[in-house]
Amino acid sequence: MGQSILIVEDEEKIARFIELELLHEGYEVEKSQDGRDGLSKAQSGRFDLMILDVMLPGLNGFEVLRRLRKDSGLPVIMLTARDAVMDKVAGLDGGADDYMTKPFAIEELLARIRLALKKGSGPDGAGKGTVLECGALTLDTLKYEARYDGKLVELTHREFELLRVLLENKNIVVSRDTLLQKVCGYDYLGETNVIDVYVRYVRAKLDDVYQVKMIQTVRGVGYVIRDGERDI
Ligand code: CA
To answer: What is the mean pLDDT of residues 166-179?
Structure first.
């Protein structure tokens, strides 16, 4: 309880509507109408989640996200214009945890907020933490930290969840459908190829940097992380 949500949205009617719903659900809420102001609020560490519009005065949503991600894993749900596929791709690329297309059903936004908060490193996760590992890769699910050879690998929540599911099923091929459900949630309604997108992001941050092949593609089935030879 008492989780705090920041809404960065310049359309006052939409911001107010979301605020009322969130207050009704028992969240604490603060609003910002400007990208620059929203960024500094998000960086304050006072919030558990941010709802971020793309089109904003000051700094646009993508730029806010890009700057925030330099030193924060704060869960972010982006609001994008209708059918703006490029927005979605750019949002995921920039480290958003999820996105909603306007206009949206408030129930869906609330469900995605609950999911994003659950996936976060909040007090709910305390005590359940364990360290998963495969070769030089370790995942501390309590601290929400991924390391390769002891060096920190910066991941978004969903990238982390992807590695978590694969490591929990080490040596077992996990289907795209299972990954989609476990990483994005059962109520996920977006594109199904989103898992391939996350795999690409993780490979760029891990495989390309350390010259290894952690996540293996099993054509037509899914993905697997195996013990053993990984050097390329
Ligand atoms: Ca706007």
So the answer is: 88
SS in 3 state form for 181-226? HHHHCCCCCCCCCHHHHHHHHHHHHCHHHHCECCEEEECCCEEEEC
CATH 3.90.180.10 fits 4-121, yes or no: no
User: What's the predicted TM-score (pTM) here?
Assistant: 0.54
Instruction: Enumerate the β-bridge partners of residue 217.
Output: 223
Using the mean position of ligand 1's atoms as its centre, give its distance from the Cα of residue 87 in Å: 13
Distance 103 CA to ligand 1 centre (A): 12
Query: CA 88, CA 65: separation in Å to the nearest integer?
Result: 13
| Mean pLDDT to the nearest integer, 198-219 | 93
> Three-state SS across 99-116?
EEECCCCHHHHHHHHHHH
Ligand 1 center from residue 52 Cα (angstroms): 9
CB-CB contact of 128 with 142 (8 Å): yes
d(C-alpha 172, C-alpha 165), whole Å: 10
Centre of ligand 1 to C-alpha 79, Å, is 9
Q: What is the dihedral of CA 122, 54, 29, 128, to 10 degrees?
A: -10
Query: Domain ranges in the chain?
Result: 4-121, 126-225
Q: Does domain 126-225 have CATH number 3.90.550.10?
A: no
